[in-house]
Every structure is written in structure tokens, then in C-alpha cells.
Amino acid sequence: MAAADQEPHVSAVCPLFYQDESYLHGFLGTVSDLQKAGVLQDVVLEVEGRRFPCHRLVLSAASPYFRAMFASDMAESRQKTVVLQGLDAGMFEEILSYIYSGTLHVSLDKVQPLYQAADLLQLDYVRDTCSSYMTMNVECSTCVDLYKFAEIFSLDSVRKGCLKLIHKHFAEMASSEEFCSLRMNQLTEIISHDELDVKQETTVWEAVVRWVQHSREDRLHHLPSILPYIRFNLLTSDNTAAILEHPLLMEDPGSSEVIRNVVQEGDSNLKPRRGMTTEMVLLSNAKPGMLLYMNPREGKYISCSYDRTPDETTVTVTSDNDMYMFDYDVENNEQLSLFKYNHAENMWEHAGMSPVTRFQRRSLLGRWIYCSESLVEADRNLYYVASDEGGSSVLVKMRKYNRHTDQWDECSQLQHDGTWHYSVALSCGPHLYFITKSAIYRYDPIKDCWCKRNAPEFMPDVTTVVAMGTEIFCADRDVTQIIVYDTESDCWQELHDWPNPRNLADDGPSLFVLDNQLHILLKTNNTVKQGLLVSTDYLVYVYDKSANAWRDLMATLPNEEYLAYSPCSPVLRMYLPYLKEA
User: Strand pairing partners for 440?
Assistant: First the structure.
């Protein structure tokens, strides 16, 4: 057949979807021009006597409130002029500007009424924007007023931001006029919190007195309900006696009885406030059963003896400032029992949680051996982490403690081809990280899955790690370098200007975070002729991030032998009288 006689080839043509971006952006501009020119307006909205000519279609498209008004059988759908109640005219003008232009102007002086208007008109974007603006701009001068506003409209993020600032500056806030305008439930929510930054509990009592006396006749009868929120167990007997003689209590004998009952019951679950505590680093003494709590920045060193002490790796401090450790079950070595540190009694006691079955494997000689174990908190849950480092591949196994069932649930395993040494597990933000010499992995507690992250070009044998903010700091045994991993950007860099002191002992360094600054603890050996050890010195350096420099704190630890917990020394907020009294 000739070429001219062949039927033409017909290919399948798929339909395509086109979108005119210029039309999408230009449409709103055209609508705004019509509004400014007063063209095609078909309704007038009246707010506080001011008249705003508008377009029903535009209003209905922007707001479910107006859509219900104009697209239904409501009387307003047929009226030429609609009077709107409960709105501020100035704020409504801002709302209209947003509806017709997509641009929103927010400031501290108008964010609250703007949110109220948006809430009434059901404008989600304006509400969310105002909420985010309030959260980011909480100030001491406005946070009490903003806290009350946030509670009315159930703005949880704003409320939490305000509470955080009120707790931090409680003494200052409690003397303000705005503080005295709080409702009783708001007052008790504030003073019930552990995070109150007060040096003495008498500050809380004085704030309550000021609040009651601001409106004495209306509030005095609330006093018996407020008093249990004051932590009388943290007051001296002299302070309690002085409070019992206060004129307010003399007027109401029932309040005095409440205090006596609270003191008599002695609720040990009421923790010291944040402002009463000092961050302390925990070290293990070479003597059995001895621990050292230290804060080299403040020159505080307190030693305590215990019936049991934490193992090298199976100890962790949670975000709630609770310290947990694993200990071998007396009757069954295959079980690990969980113990919790009791701050008030300065002792370790059983946590009242079910034990966890230890991971183990069969060695080449046929014997069962236990894996390398650690206890980590991530996303407010406790995890038992065990790494099996035998053979040509490594397996990381985990169990998560389930508070509801009192059981340890299996988690996803991490399989890594290749051996490693000095592997460590720690939490940073909501995730758990596992770091080795050749790789770094991240575990997502919500999705229960692992993913590999970027490893640095050169990773030392990681001996100690610590998380601060969104960063993870790592060092090797010889502290040849200290590297930092940014969990958000997934990038590594080296900290420069490390002094690299000499004569480091074989025990290895320990990184820890104290007062929101990076520290490192080093052990050095001093020797004389014939190599006989004369003394051991401990050095503590702090890193100044702004100056990119390390500074020797000139720490003077008691003349004992200490071991740092690996991979990092636990740090917890301590109420020092509990330690000293014990």
C-alpha cells in the first residue's frame, strides 16, 4: 500500500487542567476596586451608627456568618440596611478591609477586639492570625489581661504563654492591679503550679492576701477554698504561726482550721516551686551507695548515701523533673524494675510500675547475654532502649511504657548493617535519636517509625551527648573535637576554640546542660616520678555561644573519686533543704 493510502496515526490526547494565576490574583483586586468606587453595592451594614455599603455576594463568600444571613429566609436577607450588634465600628472597618483586600493589620492595642469581631463573624484566618500574634507578643504589662481574655475564648496557646510569663514574674505580677481583678479559679490555677518562680512560699500567701483584701467583703468567704493551694509544707513553723495570727484568719476561724489540717496531713506530693530549686548535676561516687549533687556555677556540692544508686546508663530525668532508674529484679534477673527518686524524702522508691523484660541474645558460645540498655524519655513517655551490637548487623529494640495499661509495649525496631561502638540514645524535642560512629537515626513516637538522618563527614567514637533546645552536642573520649547537630536543619558543625586540656583520664568526658548553657566535665590525672598517681583533678568548662568561647569554671569538687553518668550526667532541679535535712 502506498504511503498516501495509509490511515493517519491517531494518538490518545489526555485532557489538561489549566489555572490562570493572574486571574486568581486579579479578581480580588477588582472586587476591592468596586468597593472603593461604590459600584454594585446592594446592602448597607450599620455598626454603632456608622454605615458601610457592601456586596452581599462578597460578604457571603468570605464569612459563614454573612452566608447564613443573606442566603436564607432571615429577615436580613431582604433588608437594604442591616444593623449589626456586638461589634466595634473601628474593628469592623478592619474586617471589611481584610474581606476586600486579603490584607490584615494587627497590633497589640487592637488584637483583642479584632479577635472578638472575627469570632462573631466566623473568620477563621483572622482568628488564627490574632491568636498567633497574641502568643508571640505576650508581655509582662499585658499578660494578666491577655490571660483572662484567652480563657474566655479558649485560646490554649495564648493562655499557656501568659501563664508561663506570670509564673516567671509572679512577685511582680502579684502586686499589679490586673492581678487583683482575677477570678478565684484563675487565681488558684496560677498559684497551684510548680513553675512559680518564687524564692519563698510566703510570697504566694502575700499574693492571696492582696487579692482577698482588694474586695474583702466579696472574697473573704473564698479564702478556705484557696488556702489548700498554698504549700504550707514548704514554710517554717514560725512562718505558719505568723500566718495563723493574720487578721484575715482571725475573722474566719474556718480558714485557720483549713491550714492546721493541711499542715497536719503534710502532702509530700506538693513539690517546691521552680524558684526555690537549684539545678544540680548528678555524679556517682566511687564509694558504693554515694552520689554527689553539684552546681559548680554556684559552688554547691552535696554528697548523699543511698541503699541503691542508679546504674551507669539506666537513669533519666523527665520533663516533669522526675528522676527514674532501672534496677535488677531481686527474684528474676531477666526483669528490670523501675524506681523513682522521692525529692522530699531524698530516697529511691519503687515507682509502682510493672517491670520490663530485658532484651537478650545468644552469644557465639551459646550463652545468653544482655544487650546494652538505657532509659530515655521522649514525648513525655518512658522508653527502654536496648542495642544488640553483636555480629555484622546491629538491632535496636525498644519498649514504651503505657500508663493506661501499666505495660511495656513493643516499638518498631531499628536494623543497621555494620558494627558500631559507643552508640547512644537520647531525646531532643518530641523525637528520640540514636547516634553511632557512622550514622544517626530519628524515632518518631507518634508514627512509631525510624528514619536515617545526615551523618557528619567525620564522626568520632561518641562517648557523651546532650540535647539543648533543638541541638545535640557530641564528644569523643579524648575530646579531640565537639560537634553539634541541628535537628531542624539536619546539619552538623564543629565547635571551635576548644581548649583541649592535657593529662585527661581514661574515664572520658561528660556533657551536661546547666542553667541553659553547655558544660563539659573532665577528669585529669596528676602524676609524679615513677608514674605514681598523686591526685585527680576535675575540670568544668562552660561554653559561651555568643562569644564562641569556652571558660574554665575553676570547679572545686570534694576530694573524692567520681564517675559521670554516660552518655551524659543527669541534671535535675533540687530543693536543697531536702538534701541537707536528709
Answer: 435, 453
Which of 426, 361, 418 lies closest to 388, judged by CA? 361
Helix axes 124-136, 156-168, angle to 10 degrees: 10
CA distances from 180 to 26, 149, 175 (A): 52, 15, 8
161: alpha, beta or left? (left if phi > 0; alpha if psi -120 to 50):
alpha
What are the residues facing 339 on neighbouring strands? 325, 350
The reported pLDDT for the residue numbered 439 is 86
Q: Which residue matches cell numbers 551524659?
A: 568
The pair phi, psi for residue 100, each rounded to 5°, is -95, -15
Distance in angstroms (rounded) separating the CA atoms of residues 191 and 170:
9
Read off the C-alpha cell for 344: 522530699
Quickly list DSSP for 384-408: EEEEE--SSEEEEEEEEEETTTTEE
* Sign of the torsion formed by the C-alpha atoms of 72, 74, 80 and 84: negative
Q: Is 386 exposed, middle or buried (0-12, 13-18, 19+ CB in 10 A)?
A: buried
Contact 303, 292 (CB under 8 A): yes
User: What is the CB neighbour count within 10 angstroms for residue 321?
Assistant: 19
Q: How many residues does the chain have?
A: 582
* Rounded (10°) CA dihedral 314, 289, 568, 299: 150
Contact 322, 194 (CB under 8 A): no
Angle at the Cα of 327 from the Cα atoms of 568 and 560, rounded to 5 degrees? 50
Please give the DSSP secondary-structure letter assigned to residue 174: H
Residue 142 has pLDDT above 50, yes or no: yes
Question: Residue 98: helix, strand or coil by DSSP?
Answer: helix
Domains assigned to the chain: 21-147 (3.30.710.10), 169-265 (1.25.40.420), 278-581 (2.120.10.80)
- Confidence tier at 529 by pLDDT (50, 70, 90): very low
Neighbours of 211 (CB within 10 A): 21
CA distance 566 to 508: 9
pLDDT digits over 333-376, tens only? 788 999 999 998 899 999 999 999 888 765 555 555 667 888 99
Give residue for cell 476591592: 32
Confidence class for position 7, pLDDT limits 50, 70, 90: low
The C-alpha atoms of residue 371 and residue 353 are separated, in whole angstroms, by 22
pTM for this model (two decimals): 0.76
Alpha carbons 498 and 509: distance in angstroms, whole number: 13
First-residue to last-residue Cα distance in the chain: 107
575 Cβ neighbours under 8 A, 6+ residues apart = 234, 271, 272, 276, 277, 343
pLDDT digits over 416-441, tens only? Answer: 776 556 688 999 999 999 988 778 99
- As a whole number of angstroms, the distance between CA 60 and CA 105 comes to 22
Using CA atoms, how far apart are residues 350 and 545, in angstroms rounded to an integer? Answer: 40
Of 400, 483, 469, 477, nearest in space to 440 by CA: 483
What's the grid cell of residue 496? 571551635
Phi first, then psi, for residue 315 (nearest 5°) are: -140, 140
